[in-house]
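chain and backbone:
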Amino acid sequence: MPNSLSVQLNRDRLHDIRTVARFEVTESFAVLLENGDAPVHVHLHLDDELSRVASIPANNHYVDAGTTRQVNVEIADGPRPVEGRLKIVTGHGAETAYVVVSVVEPEEREDAVAVDERLARPQRDPDDDAEFELPGLRLGENAPVVALGLLALGVAISTAVLADSAVVLFGVLAVVGSVAAAGYLLVR
């Protein structure tokens, strides 16, 4: 599969566009704007389907007479196959050409290694479950948070016992509510 799409400009007449009707790729590719004898402005546009997996850094390009300009089309990871149209416009709309671009999965290579899907899932050893665990809560990972919550509860309760005030009682209730909410979020 070629990794560049050749587009010939100004060959037979001013603003003339010559290219293939269909182009198939598996990865990023270059559009080679090969200009003839007159400078030209070229606008490149990807339709909605093709834009799902492809992008062009800039749409408008100036190509001087007798030169070739390379424009890279980046293909990102995404669903395959995707088929869309690349629109090529010269002379501010004087001429328009379309190329149907098909982005397909790369073919399997002979040197490729087959990977079993089961390797994507983490393997668990039953002996590793020795650590205390509630659904959604792993004590080993959250031990500092649990310890800090218990410390806050202890300080709040001892302060409530030592000080006989409505403001202190309100503060203790706020701490108890906060610790309860944090515990719920850890278990959830």
Notes: The mean pLDDT is 83. Helices lie at 48-51, 139-162, 166-187. The radius of gyration is 32 Å.
